[in-house]
Automatic annotation (TrEMBL):
Residues 14-304 form the FERM domain. GO terms for molecular function: actin binding. Its main location: membrane. It comes from the Eukaryota. SMART domains: B41, FERM_C. The gene is nf2b. It is a peripheral membrane protein. PROSITE patterns: FERM_2 (PS00661), FERM_3 (PS50057). It is found in: Cell membrane. This is NF2, moesin-ezrin-radixin like (MERLIN) tumor suppressor b. GO terms for cellular component: plasma membrane. Residues 315-464, 518-552 form a coiled coil. Keywords: Cell membrane, Coiled coil, Membrane. A 1,2-diacyl-sn-glycero-3-phospho-(1D-myo-inositol) binds at K68, P69, E70, K71, K287.
Length: 591
């Protein structure tokens, strides 16, 4: 058998990757599968029943195409890659999203696709509308706004606004987030599906919502134009303006659309109106335009008919599902409210518990302090009791000392009295001595005066005797008697001298007696002065001992009473009362 005659065995399956707006899926498909088989598999996997809005789109060279349901997948111009990539997207858009979109999954897929188109600037949106739509997108993603959870910067990683809007204003990301959060906070209580529906209701009013644009030319002037196909009809735009069409052909006013190679002909129902023709150079684009026109027109006519049993069942189920979800949301809201109230009550109880714990802790601390204080007071009381006993003992000792001091004081008083008596006697003796001294001084003065007078008289007598001797001796010698012999003269002179010497010896003796008496007087005075000094010193020591005894008595009394009083001093006048006068002391000191 020739090897060249054998045919290469074809594989029975091929790989397909389907990308939805929020997931990627891979399937293993049979070679004989048609486009409808793959589409149904994806729809079942996603859980979609409103399949008439969606299709599988793939890329062909510089344009895109939709997978045809009636032809086999591999027979179409799909990429030859493995796996083959398809995008599961909305091919047709409803006129009123709140009436036509029944399933929640359908709303969600539309929401994701329209949101991406707005962010990619495929649908023009004003800055104000962009902020409002972003707030609903945040509500759908994060739920109700909670300032404790949604801190500033929680939207930093989310793409919410078109770049054109961000570049249009000189605002920071924080400023945009603040604006979005202000709207977001007002959407409290809106569920995710409701927020997505509100998003779509706002988006469907945008001029470029659900419009597919194609480049065309007119046959006469070869003018470049744009053809827009949407759920309302066909629209002709200028190349630089996709918002306001120059001419529109609603589906209700179109009688027929014919296609012949590159030429399209739009015939209105009103025969009086002109037929509109336009050209498209690409065959694939022409087929795509034709598919979109047929599909949108079919949906337009379908909306104006009674819903099929399938659609009615879907709407009924959706209504029941919405009612059930609404009830669940209400129950959830009540439970959430009750939970919040319970949490608040719990927080209040915890706060109260913490407060009670703090109060208990403070009470325990106060109790411990009280116990410590009680122990301290008990210890102090014990110490006070011991001190009281000690003080009582000291008081008893003080009383004994006081009694002893009183006895000593009595003795001291007796001694003081005796000393005062001695002092008085000494004073009297001193007075007598002073008087005697004065009398002796007077006598001494008289004696000195008499002595002086006697000396003067003696001197005068001697003088006179000498004079008489000088004058009378020659006369007596001449007239009376013969001159005496020298022995006689000498005898006379010696006699006179003897008499004079006799008088001098008496004076000396008298002076010696006076001096002796003076010395005896001085000795007695000195002895008396020494006795007075000893008496003064003894009085001072006795007085000092008396003061010390009195201070000791006061100190013991104060210790017995629990306090110490300042020492009491005897006034100066009282201290000097027991002593002699200053004049007397001065006299004795002088003596």
């Amino acid at each position: 058998m020739s090897i060249l005659g054998l045919k290469k065995k074809q594989p029975k399956t091929f790989k397909v990757k389907v990308i939805t707006m929020d997931a990627e899926m891979e399937f293993s498909c049979e070679v004989k599968w048609k486009g409808k088989d793959l589409f149904d598999l994806v729809s079942r996997t996603v859980g979609l029943r409103e399949t008439w809005f969606f299709g599988l789109r793939y890329t062909v060279k510089d344009t895109y195409a939709w997978l045809k349901p009636e032809k086999r997948v591999l027979d179409q111009e799909v990429p030859k890659d493995s796996p083959i990539t398809f995008h599961f997207l909305a091919k047709f858009f409803p006129e009123k999203v709140e009436e036509e979109l029944v399933q929640e999954i359908t709303q969600h897929l539309f929401f994701l696709q329209v949101k991406k188109q707005i962010l990619d600037e495929e649908i023009f949106c004003s800055p104000e509308a962009s902020v409002l739509l972003a707030s609903y997108a945040v509500q759908a993603k994060y739920g109700d706004y909670d300032p404790n959870f949604h801190k500033p910067g929680f939207l930093a990683q989310d793409e919410l606004l078109p770049k054109r809007v961000l570049m249009q204003y000189q605002m920071t990301a924080d400023m945009w987030e603040e604006k979005i959060t202000a709207w977001y906070a007002e959407h409290r209580g809106i569920a995710r599906d409701e927020a997505e529906m509100e998003y779509l209701k706002i988006a469907q009013d945008l001029e470029m919502y659900g419009v597919s644009y194609f480049a065309i030319t007119q046959n006469k002037r070869d003018t470049d134009l744009l053809l827009g196909v949407d759920a309302q009809g066909l629209h002709i735009y200028s190349p630089n303006s996709k918002l306001n069409p120059n001419k529109s052909f609603p589906w209700s006013g179109i009688r027929n659309i014919s296609y012949s190679e590159k030429e399209f002909t739009i015939k209105p129902l009103d025969k009086k109106k002109d037929v509109f023709k336009f050209y498209s150079s690409q065959l694939r684009v022409n087929k795509l335009i034709l598919q979109l026109c047929i599909g949108n027109h079919d949906l337009f006519m379908r909306r104006r008919k009674v819903d099929s049993i399938e659609v009615q069942q879907m709407k009924a189920q959706a209504k029941e599902e919405k009612a059930r979800k609404k009830m669940e949301r209400q129950i959830l809201a009540r439970e959430k409210q009750m939970r919040e109230e319970a949490e608040r009550a719990k927080e209040e109880m915890e706060r109260r518990l913490f407060q009670l714990q703090d109060e208990a802790r403070l009470a325990n601390e106060a109790l411990l302090r009280s116990e410590e204080t009680a122990d301290l007071l008990a210890e102090k009381a014990q110490i006070a009791e011991e001190e009281a006993k000690l003080l009582a003992h000291k008081a008893a000792e003080a009383e004994q000392d006081r009694q002893r001091f009183e006895v000593t004081a009595m003795k001291t008083k007796e001694e003081k009295r005796l000393m005062e008596q001695k002092m008085r006697e000494a004073e009297q003796l001193a007075v007598k001595l002073v008087e005697q001294s004065e009398r002796r001084l007077k006598e001494a003065d008289h004696l000195k005066q008499d002595l002086t007078e006697a000396k003067d008289a003696e001197r005068r007598a001697k003088q006179k005797l000498l004079e008489i001797t000088k004058t009378t001796y020659p006369l007596i010698a001449a007239y009376s008697t013969p001159p005496a012999p020298p022995e006689a003269a000498d005898f006379a002179y010696e006699s006179a001298s003897t008499r004079l010497d006799f008088k001098d010896s008496d004076m000396k003796r008298l002076s010696m007696e006076i001096e002796r008496e003076r010395l005896e007087y001085m000795e007695k005075s000195k002895h008396l002065q020494d006795q007075l000094k000893e008496l003064k010193t003894e009085i001072e020591s006795l007085k000092l001992e008396e003061q010390q005894q009195q201070a000791g008595v006061y100190s013991l009394r104060n210790e017995a009473r629990g306090y110490v009083q300042e020492p009491v001093y005897i006034p100066h006048s009282n201290r000097n009362s027991a002593y002699m006068s200053q004049s007397q002391m001065a006299f004795f000191e002088e003596v």
